[in-house]
Amino acid sequence: MLTFAEKVVLFNKQLHYKGNLPSGFNVINPYLDNPETLVVMEQFYQKFYQDNLQRKFIIGINPSRHGAGVTGVPFTDTKRLASACGIKMHSAHTHEISSVFIYDMIEAYGGPSIFYKQFYINSPFPLAIVRETNPNNWINANYYDDKQLFEMVKPFMVESLKQHIAMGLETEEVFVLGKKNATFLAKINKEEKLFGEMIILDHPRYIQQYKSKDKQHYIDNYIRLLSGL
After folding, report:
1. Which of 14, 30, 138, 190 is within CB 3.0–4.6 Å of 37 for a Cys-Cys bond?
2. How many CB atoms lie under 10 A from the CB of residue 88?
3. How far apart are alpha carbons 119 and 48 in whole angstroms?
């Protein structure tokens, strides 16, 4: 039987988006772009997921180009990969604000070893999406930013979610990051019947960007909801 870590590594190694995209959008696949991404991603999952425990699913939107778009680990920039997870990446150095909140919350929960034994984080579209605003100027994009984009990537999202669930995730309740993300996932869930209850958490980027003064309140709320209190 494969361990949880081995299942995730296999999933990531076979990731390849072959679908269409609207003009001005592109997909970044860090596992194809940087050989070290595969190395550190595998080290991360071997360190925290080398077991067959069933975990709760925390669902993001899609990776940012400075977080999992580089490290291959959701909500983990190279700074947190080194400081919190003990895994150094030499070919890239990134700072991603959602990663700051997630790892402050993980630390408050009890640290990465405790947190990752109970939870698995990924996204319905598990590769970074970028949009060209000016010639050769690309910014992060969300799968729901454009109606045509969503319709084009939706089959890939559904298949990715099904593959995640098959790894051995709990499905009676899932945790969704971001209200708009939850709206779109609710549409998918109505059609596909993938999950039971969807518990919505404010997105880390929103908290860091607009609610940083109340950060501790949001961390406490995350821990309360994740703990089922």
Report:
1. 30
2. 11
3. 10
Q: Which of 151, 152, 129, 125 is nearest to 141 (CA)?
A: 129
Looking from the CA of 160 toward its CB, the CA atoms found within 13 Å total 24
3-class secondary structure for the chain? Answer: CCCHHHHHHHHHHCCCCCCCCCCCEEEECHHHHCHHHHHHHHHHHHHHCCCCCCEEEEECCCCCCCCHHHHCCCCCCHHHHHHCCCCCCCCCCCCCHHHHHHHHHHHHHCCHHHHHHHEEEECCCCCEEEEEEECCEEEEECCCCCHHHHHHHHHHHHHHHHHHHHCCECCCEEEEECHHHHHHHHHHHHHHCCCCEEEEECCHHHHHHHCHHHHHHHHHHHHHHHCCC
Which pTM was predicted?
0.95
Q: What is the pLDDT of residues 14-55, one digit of tens each?
A: 999 999 999 999 999 989 889 999 999 999 999 999 999 999
The rounded distance, in Å, linking the Cα atoms of 9 and 20 is 25
